[in-house]
Amino acid sequence: MRFGPASGTSSRPFWLLALIIGSGTLGMHVLAPVLPLIGADFEVDPGRAQLVVSAYMFALAAGQLAHGPLSDRFGRRPVLLAGLSVYVVSGMLCVLAPTFGTLLMARVLQALGGCAGLVIGRSIVQDTSKGGEAASLIGALNAVLLVSPAVAPVLGLWLGESLGWRFVPLILVAFGSIALLGALFLISETGTARAEPARESIAAYWRLLKSGPFMARVFAGSLTTTTMFGILASSPFIVTGTLGRPLSDAGGFYAVLVAGILAGSLAATRLARRIPTDRLILLAASTGLAGSLLLAASHAWGLTATLFVASGFLYTFMSGLMAPLALTRTVAMVPERRGAATGFFGFSQIFAGAVAVTLSGLASDVVVSTAAVMLVCSGVGLATLLVLRVRPSPG
């Protein structure tokens, strides 16, 4: 599957776009299962060892705020190549890290480099496709990228146990090197560099953030996409605690929830070209709200495995369907600042996901807190979208 630029001759292979966009998120998942090995190697407690993942996530979110505007000003290609280069070099520093502090520093740099691919890869799609076509392609990319959270931990654990944890970041170096070489030879410039002073770029970014319709789209999109991490994170506790199943069953339930995201992403690739985007967005958000209400009602009646799977699937289906639609619709509002818009949207998504995970585990009854998070996020997201529908924004 290939798609060409609006101008220029280079093709953009689907596999390369998936690798570029997925490089940042792969680094988030693959090291998680070998944290005990890292802690033992550097003689640090589990809390400090988890910084290897949490510090990476925060840097992955924050870095998107910079890469978007930079790619608008200097062009997509130079910022992408620079980011992937940092990703590869810092990955080697992770492999060779003599101390835990060095490893943490390298992980932060790795995230800052990897999120360039996350932002700019999606910006390239927006540059070269429009409307339903862009949403369809991003949906297809999201469907492929869902393999990452499923496969990466298994790969990381196997490498860590077989060869040692340092071979795990070495795999990231290998993938990053392929993405870098592919970008160097197969990706041409799709944006338009602006010879403007830094002050003007900052002012333009500030105007973007002060735009009520834009921020409303970002807000609604974040609430209805990455907040599904809340139910994903709490599902093992619901399966073992509320449903009384063994921990070995948690993987099967988790797989069904991930399948909901995959189904939503695949639905987006088929429906985005046939149904108006705003109508499809409202349908997606309504589906998620239905799942939230089902989980809350089921808990009151007596939660069963079937009801939990059904409610969770509806919510994660919303996330998979909503992700490409919300991004495409939001970025279309500011075509002259696609990079900045994409970067801020990505930051907001990761932030919303992190908050959802935290809040889903606050109550003594995890079903109550998870259902509450789902209801608030899907309900407020849908309400915001309905207001935007009544008062349509340009773009």
Automatic annotation (TrEMBL):
Its main location: membrane. The chain crosses the membrane at residues 12-35, 47-67, 79-98, 104-125, 137-159, 165-187, 214-239, 251-268, 280-301, 307-327, 339-360, 366-388. Residues 13-395 form the Major facilitator superfamily (MFS) profile domain. It is a multi-pass membrane protein. It is found in: Cell membrane. It holds the Pfam family MFS_1. Keywords: Cell membrane, Membrane, Transmembrane, Transmembrane helix. This is Multidrug effflux MFS transporter. It comes from Alsobacter ponti.
